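User: Okay, second chain of the day. Same drill as before: sequence in, structure tokens out.
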Amino acid sequence: MRNYLLVAFCVLILSNSIKAQDQTFEIQSKDELVLTFGSCNRENLPQPLWSSISAHNSDLFMFLGDNIYGDTDNMKVLQKKYNRQKQNEGYTKLRQETPVIGVWDDHDYGKNDAGKEYEFKEESQQLFLDFFDVPKDDPRRKREGVYSSHDINWNSKTIRVILLDARYFRDSLERINRVYQKNETGTVLGEEQWNWLENQLSDDAVSLYIIASGIQMIPEDHDYEKWANFPKERQRLLDLIQEKQPKGVVLLSGDRHIGEISRIDLEGLDYPLVEITSSGLTHVWEDAEEDNRYRLGELVTKLNYGLIKINETNNGLGVDLEIRGNDQELIHFASINF
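Assistant: Same drill. Structure tokens below.
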């Protein structure tokens, strides 16, 4: 088991802004930074990918939602499902070797496709924080929602992982004939989280931002849950990235029971904005066929997890984004230089 220095910082709240990070990881004298992630993990199904994920000896694993399938108003049932997942042999081994952080999507939030109307979101939040071993006196225990920020100080670089909560504050959606209708005025993040995100993206010392959301941010064409169901919110996110001009940004998402890589080019941004979706740790949509005008390459319809490899280059950072499967099979990839 590798040694990590993990420093937990108190969060200073001034007005509606949160400047400090929830966690900082110190990883020094390492040529390549390796991060893994995944989503859609049903606690009562076989979980064959943990051994492959563990084999990468990654520096951090990120759960991107549907970490269990709670789907209940009974918090005892939700807790029992979290406990079952925490006792899974493969996942236990990963936790012993690798720091694990995460955010929720709908099923671990407690209700399929739910937003701010979910009656038990406050109770569910505490069980979520218990699952990720967040201390009882941590400021996240008193914050609405489970969004969080984590810095990785790696050699001379700072990599910031921002986990967005797209459930706790999200306004309602209407569904007609299984197709979600656009909410032209509603919010995904809520103003407090938006203010927090703007502050998080304002740090010139950060070499790469990794922004994760349970639901997809770039795709617009499918009929299911996505940021594009709230077009003003999606545009606000893209505008914020354009405005802040970070040195580098990568987007991560889950939810869809497929894997894919999407790309959009933003005016004034001197690198492509790429989103890697990895969804299907235990089950996938095997016969999926759908359009995505932003997709690079193939649609992945078998069990998968995500892998990020970060290397220093003469001019900045080189980032490899990979979708992998059983026995570490490389299914799909993209590379970006920042």
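Residues 231-244 form the longest helix (14 residues).

User: Thanks, on to the next one.
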